[in-house]
Design brief:
Layout lengths: L6 H55 L4 H13 L5 E7 L2 E8 L8 E10 L2 E10 L1 H48 L18 H50 L4 H32 L8 E4 H11 L1 H6 L3 E5 L6 E4 L1 H17 L6 E9 L2 E8 L20 H4 L7 H11 L3 E7 L3 E8 L13 H8 L7
Parallel strand pairs: 6-8
Antiparallel strand pairs: 1-2, 1-4, 3-4, 5-7, 8-9, 9-11, 10-11
């Protein structure tokens, strides 16, 4: 099993590795540079010796020969340097050799070879100089580097571990503070150091994330509380009706009335549960709705036929201004049916008897706008900012027995289609709901709509604010 290492340990190891590599490279390059510099200076000295010896030989060879020439050359060689090696040969063999300062067999010499012509003969000249001092200097440098580099690395690692510990201390403090935050105290926030560095930025980001989590948890808690409250009433009615029916014998009509009341409350509770499931699935991004190219005019025409009788009972006229131009969007037919059902049902519910509802479809620059306008009670300025919240109901809607999920569902469906819902309303004068669909780009087009979603949508005949 791989053993976990702390960031501090890994930083120290990486620092040690990089520092070791850097110092080794520095030491090696320093040693090579010094070696090259020392040998280059010896080579330049040898070049000068060889050039002077060659010039002197040319001069003396023209005036002397034999032993006299060798004596002159030896005297000249002694004047060149305290330690010197010269070897001169021609085609017949050795002419002159000079060694001073040490036995040539024991000396470490740097040899320079060159040839020159004089008097029709070719001569081979070797000059040399000892490199003991240079080698000694290089050896001292090598020992110094090998001795100091490990010490420097150890000191640097200790310092690096200390520095990394200080650098990571804010992270450890941040982690300790984060461990104290749970779902019970999401209102707590992490301390933000006043340094303006990456740690401060991380603290701010984490605080923003915790704030979002707090908002989500509060919304979820409120959602559960509201759902529980909404479910309590129909359950209480069902239980009460059943208990009353079982207390004493009743006529068949009495039992039928009790069962009818139970069925009505069960149907209301079923609609509520189905709406909650749709919202929960959407919030969890599990309701991937297949989208196809749909002319919204067809959906609206079918919907107008469905609610015709409901509008006729209230003597409300629905004016469908659908236009002649196709209004095609990428959408899910069942979902769009539910979206427009919510808007039209609300328009009928809050319109005055004998009034009218205007349904209009417009296309502009590839976008499609669907407008539902009524001339009924309207929405107050106090309620208007909250009508799309789940379980929110104005006072008049509470009297109607709805559970306040209609417009929340409508907004969820609209967002799933990339559309936006805008509302304008004046209390006492009516409301205008406008759904704007983006230009269709041909993407996300798939098979016909999901049957399960269609069944959920068609199970409710009305929706409410």
């Amino acid at each position: 099993m791989l053993r976990r290492r702390s960031i501090r340990f890994r930083l120290t190891v990486w620092y040690a590795v990089i520092l070791s590599a850097g110092l080794s490279l520095f030491g090696g390059l320093t040693w090579l540079s010094l070696r090259h510099r020392l040998l280059a200076e010896i080579d330049r000295d040898l070049e000068g010796r060889a050039a002077r010896f060659e010039q002197y030989f040319r001069t003396e060879a023209a005036a002397a020969s034999g032993d006299q020439l060798r004596d002159e050359l030896e005297e000249f060689s002694q004047s060149l340097a305290p330690s010197n090696y010269i070897d001169l040969r021609d085609a017949n063999g050795l002419i002159f050799r000079f060694v001073s300062g040490a036995d040539e067999r024991e000396a470490n010499l740097r040899i320079l070879r060159r040839s020159f012509n004089d008097g029709g003969n070719t001569f081979q000249l070797e000059t040399g100089a000892p490199i003991r001092d240079a080698l000694h200097t290089l050896e001292l440098l090598r020992l110094l580097l090998l001795g100091l580099i490990p010490v420097v690395i150890v000191i640097a690692c200790v310092g690096g571990a200390w520095l990394s510990g200080r650098a990571l201390k804010p992270v450890n403090d941040l982690a300790a503070a984060a461990l104290t935050i749970s779902i019970e105290n999401l209102s707590e926030r992490l301390p933000v150091p006043p340094t303006g560095d990456e740690i401060a930025r991380l603290s701010e980001v984490l605080n923003t994330m915790i704030a979002r989590l707090e908002s989500a948890v509060n919304t979820l808690s409120q959602f559960v509380a509201d759902a529980s409250h909404e479910l309590r009433t129909p359950l209480a009615v069902i239980r009460t009706s059943a208990e009353l029916a079982l207390r004493r014998a009743r006529t068949p009509e009495g039992y039928r009335d009790s069962l009818t009341e139970v069925a009505a409350e069960a149907e209301r509770m079923t609609r509520l549960v189905e709406d909650l499931l749709i919202l929960a699935r959407k919030d969890a991004e599990l309701a991937e709705m297949p989208l196809v190219a749909i002319d919204v005019r067809e959906v609206l025409s079918d919907l107008c036929r469905e609610i015709h009788d409901l509008a006729a009972m209230r003597q409300i006229e629905i004016k469908a201004l659908l236009g002649e131009t196709p209004a095609t969007v990428s959408g899910n037919r069942a979902a769009l049916h539910r979206l427009f059902l919510v808007l039209l049902d609300n328009a009928l519910k809050y319109s005055r008897d004998g009034g009218e509802v205007i349904l209009r479809v417009e296309s502009d620059s590839g976008r499609v706008r669907v407008t539902v306008q009524d001339f009924g009670a309207g929405i107050s300025e106090t309620d208007l900012p909250h009508i799309f919240k789940r379980f929110y109901r104005a006072d008049r809607a509470r009297n109607g027995g709805g559970h306040g999920l209609g417009l929340a569902l409508a907004q969820t469906i609209a967002r799933s289609h990339g559309a936006a819902i805008d509302v304008q309303s004046t209390e006492g004068s009516g409301s205008v709901f406008e759904v704007t669909f983006p230009a269709r780009d041909g993407t996300r087009v798939s098979d016909p709509p999901d049957r399960n979603y269609r069944n959920v949508v068609s199970s409710e005949s009305s929706a409410e604010v």
